[in-house]
């Protein structure tokens, strides 16, 4: 057990004590023991299988098998229903240390959630509706129970964040704490929709369980849910692989031109900051990040000798290098999801006054995405060391951008970058895999050259 | 890259479906509809399921909700505690009418209902209803207990899915000459994906309608819709991934190391050969990705190989480029298996995995046939046959010859 704050331990101990009280009175002979054991075994087994390496659902958000728990809440008295969650939670696979503490916490949280849901459902008279299969009327109590379940989980999670035992560990912090005001923000909104779907599945299980067709039919309800979880996990795996491949496009440039290593990622990051500052929606921000990452991909088509040349270029050589936006566009035009990023790759060397290349577009003729990337590209070129110049401080680079705004760059984009850097500072990552190397303070403070980013 | 179209069904299958549909419609029109409310509710659900269908997604079952609702209507024996009386004819007629109705917007937008899809839907529903409705109406299942009845429905639907898979695999074999085993294996694999969700939902819906009445329909559709959404996203990201890999493959072309379209042609031809040799779908994906990226190692060369033709280089040099390529692929996060194929493409064929043998032979064929001018393809194939002293695997060369003889891919010079 490493560095868990004392107040976090106290908080978890309190939650565990409350959960133990919920489990009282212990189920007696009158309980539906077969249902209890079957559901508990089902929950434990499913959790185990789903998180094993074979299925590979470890990336899935927690709480995959809530339908089983909610079915228990709709079928059994509150203490018995709460007991269903215990074996599964205590045996569950935990990736991060401290393992025992996390398991206990998970069990306590689920016991409290399921107990509350079962109580609410019982008080509203849902149990009888489930037995008679009285459909429109069983939806109300079930809905209230699901809402209660969701609220309890969110409340406990928010509390855990507030006492500082939940923020994902980073290289700098093992146990980050979150300001109390922010701890609960969005927790309910984010989890309500998935839990509502789980609740519907749980309700179906409960109804079929009590029907003449029995538990066999109830288990069938889980199958579509399992299939959808599997597809979801595959989706995440494939998406991660896809993003790695996009990065590979960039690494292919690095093979030829080691000097610009990290440049693409940093331009992607600066483009993203500008896009956010302009209030674009998340999807467009993501596309602009790709635009920044891929803007120089056409350099693959430029002879290595020219890219690595140290001295000044002849006009002939310059013309060859200036072909790279067109090469890049030729490469990425087949990738549908890049959208307007493809235009950015083609036009990122256009200037507002029409003196840029390849087409010499002017002002509004230049696509917005290209105007964003042009600013981000110039900014990173100035703040990093090149063969022909040393790195300049961030403040100097921003001032230079502002000087050229209107003739070369779009003033709107420049202003957005100045604002974004002024607020958040400039903290480029070397590659997308590596953590942040260093943080350059907002302009005003003396900026130093960044270690690790250069060769 | 899709030089090989998805299978078109036998005309026989279409004829059977048309016959069944016409007969059912005639009987239903003559006898009138039993339990209109139930028929209407199921029809509505099938139509909605059909509306959410999206053509072009790489899913074997494009409208899972429609399929599940259709199957459960064929298996329905009771609604809200009262027995139902619709027979085989009405089940088929309602499913057909609802499917057609749900296809109207698709037709209006120009992508009509695929006949294969409709024919298969009609035949499976007809099969299920024929197995279930006559014995049920004669009271043969009356003394079965509840759980046994649930298992019966499940078994019936699984049998249907199996027949459907065979039905889909047979024409694939007759058209492309692909071995039956792998084709059937791919179809069965699809059954385990979204297919199992459709089967389970179909059975559960029929049971739940019997218990709680028609209210069950919307409630029980939700998990299946969720599964459908997950599969769509999965299919979409796979398609995007493929485009990206193709673009990565074009890096060597843009850089002037290889001729335009080379990687794409090698990939298409490799896939065809792989199919002919009986690889399964996941193996084909690895093969295709590896073929697309087989030349990526050349990016590390300072001087381009003339015309990108690696087949003529000394073995050691070929192997060096292959290892460089494998290193690049390994860094990309693409499946490890792809990197292995790229790395081993220049090894002696006895030591190579099958996919690497295919890539090597097809690459050599593509390069030689391009150099050879008008008679290039034939000379290239002859070269490969003669050179099989450990260089190109004989069985791969024979398969390549079969594929070339069958398709019009003799000299795909169009960019």
TrEMBL record, chain A:
Residues 446-455 have a biased composition (Low complexity). Residues 238-433 form the HD-GYP domain. The keyword Transmembrane helix applies. The keyword ATP-binding does not apply. The chain crosses the membrane at residues 65-92, 104-124, 144-167, 187-209, 215-233. Keywords: Membrane, Transmembrane, Transmembrane helix. It holds the Pfam family HD_5. Residues 260-382 form the HD domain. It comes from the Bacteria. This is Metal-dependent phosphohydrolase.
UniProtKB/TrEMBL annotation, chain B:
The chain crosses the membrane at residues 148-170, 191-217. Residues 1-26 form the signal peptide. Keywords: Lipoprotein, Membrane, Signal, Transmembrane, Transmembrane helix. Pfam families: HD. Residues 261-362 form the HD domain. This is Lipoprotein. It comes from Streptomyces djakartensis.
